[in-house]
Input
Amino acid sequence: MIFAALALRAAGLKAAAVAARLRLPVPGRAGECWSVPASTASSWLSRFAGRAGWLRAGLLGLLPLADPLGRPVAAAGSVTGDALAALDAVTAGLRRGFAGLATVAAHEVAAHLTGGLLLAPSLPPLAGNTTLIAVAAVSPS
Output
């Protein structure tokens, strides 16, 4: 579902249009679907966009290892599209180079390489003073 949203965003759709196209069938209720709230889709898209440059750079560094004969990855026209193109190239290289990964999906590769934290909320910065002050140790007596 999330990677479908990312692909729609890479195709140029805005967050509300992406959310409007995402439907998940309701178990046990033929013909009924759950929709994804626009705020959820927007959160997925903004978190990915914030990390897409980092992800693309990491994937392009990994590409020669995954597929030494792989083709160069062409720019897709957006940060999200570029990252997804690099992920597709790495996934294709892994499928060709390793028999045990012949059926691996791009979202599985992304989850593995990011430790499952690709869309995790950012950690808040440390609060307070984190500098060390040179102070003589005083023994409690």
Residues 2-113 form one domain. Strands lie at 23-25, 33-35. The longest helix spans residues 38-66. The mean pLDDT is 85.
